[in-house]
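pls read this stuff:
=====
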Amino acid sequence: MAQRNKKASSGQRGQIITLISVVVVLLVVATLILIKINKSSSSAAPTNTAAPSDVVAAVTGISSNDFSTIGYNTALPKPSAIKEPSSLTKGGLPELLYMGADYCPYCAAQRWAIVAALSRFGTFQNLGATSSGANDVYPNTQTFSFYGSSYSSKYLSFVGVEMQTNIPSNGSYTTLQNPTTAQNTLLTAWDKPPYTPTADGIPFLDFANKYVLGGASYNPGLLQGLSLQTIAGSLSNTSSAPGKAILGTANILTASICKIDNNQPSSVCSLSYIQQIENAIK
């Protein structure tokens, strides 16, 4: 009886030791997996930095006179009206939805005008600075990123979705932000002819689901080789090619916003050239 009990105790100790060994092995494997995941996450992190304060100040503080000097550039594209418009709002305000990606040089060009236009209606916080993909067309175009930023306005809401970084991965780029189902639905419905020049292109802008604009409004090549500071400085030089393109695009975006926010503020939306652009958007 005693011997039987002794043998039973030894068997139990063996089972415990085996169980502990299995647990230790599982913990080691789990640790290795977590390390691998963390390394992968780090490599996919966006290469954004905080946008320099002098650059932000230059783009968000463009003078009314400089905007007016450029006025309505009829050569630049205007948004297309959705034939069966619905309502896109956030927080009770009309929503301007932007969908793009850090690697995209066309997004890089358009963001300058988007920031300039939206700054006439509200305030950005924590704008990022980045550049388009080094191996894409118009490589390393200097620009802002909306990833991690916020925007406040009493006239409209702004949602910026940067879907991918500028870090190459398997013939594409690593994921940054995943659009919601509703955002993907809008992209699928309106990011195609006749509303946009091509199907499935970025950048994509949806103005409260009344109007949409696809692609860059001007050639990103105008910004090639220029630093953030140089591009920002061109905005006070209305005879420069970047200044003309960015300010002209910003004026069209401004008029488009005025069409969805009941023409507020009147100090911006009642300007004669803004009204002229509004009348041309149909």
Summary: The chain has two domains: 1-43, 49-280. The first strand starts at residue 49 and ends at 50.
